[in-house]
Amino acid sequence: RRNDAQNDPSPGSISLSCHTPLLPSITAGISTWSVCQTGATSQAYEELQKATREELLDRVKESSPAFFEKVVVDLLVAMGYGGKTGSGTVTGKPKDGGIDGIIREDKLGLDVICVQAKKWEGVVGRPIVQQFVGSMDFTRARKGVIITTSSFSSEAIDFIKRIEGKKVVLIDGDRLAELMMEHKVGVITSKLYELQEVSGDYFDEDV
Questions:
Q1: I need a surface site. Which of 6, 13, 150, 158 has the fewest CB within 10 A?
Q2: C-alpha dihedral (182, 187, 193, 197), degrees to nearest 10
Q3: What is the C-alpha separation between 88 and 129, in angstroms, rounded?
Q4: Do strands 88-90 and 101-104 pair parallel, antiparallel, or not at all (unpaired)?
Q5: Closest CA relative to residue 194, chosen from 23, 41, 12
Q6: 139-197 pLDDT, tens per residue?
């Protein structure tokens, strides 16, 4: 019956397989089953995390360009850039030279991070990245971040590696979803499960 359940999972369920017998033999010992149990739990967790990342990125792609710019600034502030909520602003200006947001890293705004949010389906190429780097001069910024829901071309990535005097980081859609989950932007923790195992030290009578 157990094999039937694994081969015919119900819709929406996560099928987990473990080749170690459900009731381990005496020679295998409890530890073998514990390893299998832990592996199955880890697999389930990773599959759930992957599904959440995909759903999160889909929601970001469905949002308006203005909201996406807000998401990008919120994420950078949550990551500690600017120090606190309110230190990041969305420019909200058309023809802003490619700068969609500014993060102020100190109270006087002497050190700023320029931000560009690209909610695109296609690949972000070198011309867009190069324009952004040039626009940073208007704010005298030496740090910048470009975040997209898609990906960057190899030429764009290579260009960033070769620029001097400025540090610009490129974040694609997959990395964006990972960072949003890591810093709890757009997600909530629904449940926490505490996993327990038998303490070998407790039952060691020789100690």
A1: 13
A2: -20
A3: 21
A4: antiparallel
A5: 41
A6: 889 999 999 999 999 999 999 999 999 999 999 999 999 999 999 999 998 888 787 88
Which tokens sit at 8? 């015919």
Out of 60-69, 94-103, 120-129, 152-161, pick the least confident: 94-103
Quick one: which of 55, 83, 99, 64 has its CA closest to 188? 55
Six-digit token string for 18: 């473990």
Q: Are 60 and 176 in contact (CB under 8 A)?
A: yes
Taking every pair of Cα atoms in the chain, the longest distance, rounded to a whole number of angstroms, is: 75
Query: What is the DSSP code (8-state) at residue 138?
Result: G
Assess whether 176 and 79 both reside in one domain: yes
Q: Are residues 113 and 28 in the same domain?
A: no
Q: Which domain holds residue 104?
A: 65-182
Residues 97 and 148 in one domain: yes
